[in-house]
Amino acid sequence: MTPRLSVRAFVLLSLFCFGVFVAVAQESLSFEEAVNLSQQSPAVELARVQVSSAQKQLAIASSPVSGTLTGGYSSSAGALTAPTLSEPERLDSSSFDPLRLSANFNLIPYGPRFDSVLQARARLRQAELDLRDAQASSLISTVEAYFTALRATQELELKQLALSTAQSELEANQSRFDAGAISASQLTQSQLALQQAQLDLASAQLASTGDLLTLSNLLGVPVEAVADTAITLELKEDYDLETQVLARSDVQKAFLSLEQTRRDAAATLRDNLPSGTVGLTYNHATDNQNLGLGASFSTSNFQPSLSASYDFDYSPPGATPEDSSSDSFGFSIGLSIPLDASLPDALALADISVNQAQLNYEQTLDTARLRIHNAEQQVRSLEESLALSQELLEQARVTLETTQKRFELGLVSQFDVLGAQQNLAEQELRFGQAQDSLVLALLAYLQSLGLNPMEVF
User: Fold this and answer.
1) CATH architecture under which domain 244-273+342-457 falls
2) CA 184 to chain centre
3) What distance in Å separates the CA atoms of residue 175 and residue 177, rounded to the nearest whole number?
4) How much is the pLDDT for 383?
5) What is the pLDDT of residue 341?
6) Selection from 444, 375, 29 nearest residue 229 by Cα
7) Amino acid 16: pLDDT
């Protein structure tokens, strides 16, 4: 080994040992902590805010009554002049406007007001679906990043084992070269193998650090190490495909869009139909006060309204006897007929929009069924891969046991044992990665079924 290569190997090995010592000394992030933190990500918090906002909008739209209270004061000044008047006659006047209270009652489940309630309910449902999707996406991203960081740490340990094996082989070949048992080219190959192992170790160290930083950025907290946790998931029941298709977010959103399009089409027709108004009034007046009550209903908004007014400085028109009073009742009826030449085109456009939304909903259903099928096939494929990986792991364990026994009998060298140990470590890593892939596929499958993956933890 050249002096430069020896110093480089020493520095890299020292850095690795220091990194392992720091990782052990620092507290590791558990899988449960990572899962809980995933539900506090900015995307999830923003989705929660959207749900709260939609709830407030629904409460506003669903208010059973709304009203207004009005009042005012008016004043004017002026003078009347004429040749017959000795001096100008003042025309100053001032009065308080009547106090008027109007109330609209949103009781009938029909018309524009009720449409706004249905729209608010749809927005709330969409916000809830967005929250569920954000929670599922954040969970899957966190689990994937956690597994990546965990396997990167194990990959680092594997590269350290490979470096130790390469160092031992180089030392042995150096002794054999000094004894003339091997050629210089064979020794050079061992030196190059050690150099490659050092580079692989440095690369694994950088990858591990980068994966931990990725997990830290995803969770919003510093993560220096992750705990090795075995995670296995199993579907506890057979899900009904058609039921779960309808539970998917994209399908429900497409259905909400279809319902909104139908409401818009119905509103287009309703707004262009003749509408009528019916009103009842009662008025009680004295020489200085006036009380009025009224009720009305219009088929333009399909909501009844009540009004009450009181004028405490009322001045009756014309001359009335002193201390007189009057009571009057009124009834009114009106009819409004819209005349719009573009109505046929508007109705045709509304019909086209409904058909388009219906086709989009049906296409979304077909796409959802295909995605569920693909997710299920992916789970089955990864289950087979996991079974194969487990077989390879068992073979590696048997090979190591056999090699150790043969080494004790002097039939193989220590390098064969190191090679078997390294092969077992590699198979353990590959088996863990296969488990990770299956867990992620199961989470994706649950998400494709319209379920919350958080329920399996």
Assistant:
1) Up-down Bundle (1.20)
2) 63
3) 5
4) 94
5) 86
6) 29
7) 37
Give the type of residue at 313: D
Strand partners for 97: 72
For residues 51 and 132, give the distance between their C-alpha atoms in angstroms, rounded to a whole number.
11
Q: Do domains 1-10+26-62+108-229 and 244-273+342-457 have the same CATH topology?
A: yes
- H helices of 96-183, where? 112-178
Dihedral sign for Cα 396, 399, 405, 406, please.
negative
Q: How far is CA 72 from CA 97, 98, 286, 361, in A?
A: 5, 7, 21, 54
DSSP state letter for 454: G
Write out pLDDT tens, residues 337-379. Answer: 988 888 899 999 999 999 999 999 999 999 999 999 999 999 9
Residue 380 CB contacts under 8 Å (≥ 6 apart), including other chains:
none
What type of residue is 287?
Answer: D
pTM of this structure: 0.80
In single-letter form, the type of residue at position 150 comes to: L
CA 383/CA 363 separation, integer angstroms: 30
3-state secondary structure of 76: strand
| 387-394, long-range: CB < 8 A, 24+ apart | 389/427, 389/430, 389/431, 389/434, 390/431, 392/427, 392/430, 392/431, 393/424, 393/427, 393/428, 393/430, 393/431
Domain boundaries, the chain: 1-10+26-62+108-229, 68-77+87-105+278-337, 244-273+342-457
1-10+26-62+108-229 falls under which CATH superfamily?
A: Outer membrane efflux proteins (OEP) (1.20.1600.10)
What letter would DSSP give residue 29?
B
Q: What is the pLDDT of residue 319?
A: 58
How does DSSP classify residue 74?
E
Q: What percent of the chain is helix, strand and coil (3-state, nearest 5)? A: 65, 15, 20
pLDDT at 55: 98
Write the CB contacts of 170 (distance below 8 Å, at least 6 apart in sequence).
Answer: 1, 187, 190, 191, 193, 194
Residue 249 CB neighbours (<10 A): 19
| Spans in the chain with pLDDT lower than 50 | 1-25
Round to whole Å and give the CA distance between 95 and 421. 102
**Cα–chain center distance at 366:** 23
Give the separation between CA 257 and CA 358, rounded to whole angstroms. Answer: 9
Long-range contacts of 272-276 (CB under 8 A, 24+ apart): 272/338, 272/340, 272/343, 272/346, 272/347, 273/338, 274/335, 274/336, 274/337, 274/338, 275/299, 275/300, 275/335, 275/336, 276/333, 276/334, 276/335, 276/336
